[in-house]
Amino acid sequence: AILFFVMSSLCNVNAMYEYSLSSFLAVFRKSLDQAAPDPIVEKRLYNIVNKVTENLYDYVCTSLFERHKLMFSFQMACRILASDDSVSLPLLDFFLKGNQSLEKPTQANPHPTWLSEQGWADLI
């Protein structure tokens, strides 16, 4: 589900990036057939997840402009890490957006020659 929503959210980047559920299911079915079989269920699931991720990435990247591929890769990686609780969503949000506080920092910027006021506000 995570991969489908990452794929379908690309329409926010460019209206041409519209993907259907049926196209996702086609990639998913292909991945099920290609994933290495294993008698141990956990290993089989691991193989399936990896193959679905790889095939979906390849499928989507064939239709993306070059300038959007890195953004898609980053978004895909962040969503996967967030689903595993490997990255904190508030921390990731702060990393992407910076300080959203409306209040000015109470401490003066100690190094205004090399640290911008916005950079200082983000640190505080």
UniProtKB/TrEMBL annotation:
It comes from the Eukaryota. InterPro entries: DHC. The keyword Oxidoreductase does not apply. GO terms for biological process: microtubule-based movement. It comes from Kipferlia bialata. Its main location: other. GO terms for cellular component: cilium; dynein complex; microtubule. The keyword Transmembrane helix does not apply. One of its GO terms (molecular function) is ATP binding. It is found in: Cell projection, Cilium; Cytoplasm, Cytoskeleton. Keywords: ATP-binding, Cell projection, Cilium, Coiled coil, Cytoplasm, Cytoskeleton, Dynein, Microtubule, Motor protein, Nucleotide-binding. Signal peptide: none annotated. This is Dynein heavy chain.
